[in-house]
Amino acid sequence: MQVGRTEPERTDYLVGEDSAQFDLSKQKILSWVYFIGVAGVVAYVLYAAWIDSSTGFGKPFIEAVSSISESPE
């Protein structure tokens, strides 16, 4: 750096989106329908594969863990 010479002020800062900003008028109905559909499918698969005691793995998992541990919790 030379004496008496100043560096120019930086103006090329990185700019990103404001993730906390939500504007309902900018939302698309199709995006919400897609989101609700995907969330519904995930919830159904989670219920069928884990929570439902007749088809899921939740009950066998709890029984396996209970056989290892004597704690009722």
UniProtKB/TrEMBL annotation:
GO terms for molecular function: 9,15,9'-tri-cis-zeta-carotene isomerase activity. The chain crosses the membrane at residues 29-50. Keywords: Isomerase, Membrane, Transmembrane, Transmembrane helix. Signal peptide: none annotated. One of its GO terms (biological process) is carotene biosynthetic process. One of its GO terms (cellular component) is chloroplast. This is 15-cis-zeta-carotene isomerase, chloroplastic. It comes from Olea europaea subsp. europaea. The lineage of its organism: Eukaryota, Viridiplantae, Streptophyta, Embryophyta, Tracheophyta.
